[in-house]
Amino acid sequence: MTCSARLLPWVVLVLVLFGSGIVRGEEPMPSRATEARSPCAIHHPSDERIAWHCRRLQRGETLEGLFGRRWIDVARFNRIDRRHAQPGREIKIPLRLEDVAEFTPLPHRYPAGEQEPQLILVDLREQFLGAYEWGTLQFSLPIASGEPDNETPVGDHRITAAHRAHRSCLYTIEATTVPYPMRYALRFYVNAQGVSYWIHGRDLPGYPASHGCIGLADEQMQRRYYGAPADPVLDDAKRLYEWVIGDRTDSGTLLPLSDGPRVVILGGLLEGGKERRPIP
């Protein structure tokens, strides 16, 4: 194959992916990119490390169809799941897919956790969670934290309970009376009014959307209650849950944890590039 022949597929890919929208640094799109609920309008500090382009998904387009096996990397970069990456939505598309391979904005080493066998670090500015062992990152996951009027409490907390089949006693699935499923739930905080805050499975719309809990992708739950995606893949909530539980016996009922991992929550929501709350 000649050099020009080898370049042709990449030229076609660039034309397909970047045929509409802008590259970061150009004039902003005049449509939904300025809306608070467009991933393109959510500015994370790590965005500055990666050149990206804002593009509205067109009819018939899916993450899998556009990016093949790299769709998970692009979803992580956008903090979004497939049910929300639908035609009409805008997403950030990296100019080089290699730049978001196994994407994480969190540090590989977290010195404050070097004495901890397990520590969960949550960066609200980045909308990402990291699982650390003795200060070394084992894996990281995109999150959906509390929306601006119901922010996730920052500070130093600890996992005090686990419940694999937890359900909300306050909220229901939209337009139903079904209690909202909070599978693979890990309690990290109880406020003065006795309201518990959990890390649990949910959907990831690409922006902070919870009532204060920390949501992780659970596509199996979404297929059951929302009918999509047809082939669940993302099971981030289950992955973190099993890492926390380890070899403990889990009967499926509420499991108190006297020695659960420390949870450090840093930062505050970013809106339009402005930080709402300083890092403690």
Description of the molecule:
The chain is α+β, with helices and mostly antiparallel strands and 280 residues long. The protein has two domains: 3-100, no CATH class; 111-275, L,D-transpeptidase catalytic domain-like, CATH 2.40.440. Helix content is 16%, strand content 29%. It contains five helices and 15 strands. The strands form four sheets. The chain has a five-stranded mixed beta sheet with strand order 6-5-4-13-7, covered by helices on one side. Strands 11-10-9-8-12 form a five-stranded mixed beta sheet. The protein starts with a helix and ends in a 5-residue tail after the last strand. The model is unreliable at 1-16, 18-36 and 271-280 (pLDDT under 50).
Biggest sheet character: 5 strands, mixed
Q: Quaternary status of these chains?
A: single chain
| Shape, principal axes of CA atoms | globular
Content of β-strand: 25-35%
In CATH terms, the superfamily of the largest domain is L,D-transpeptidase catalytic domain-like
Q: What class would the helix/strand composition place it in? A: alpha+beta
CATH structural fold name of the largest domain: L,D-transpeptidase catalytic domain-like
How are strands sequenced across the largest beta sheet?
6-5-4-13-7
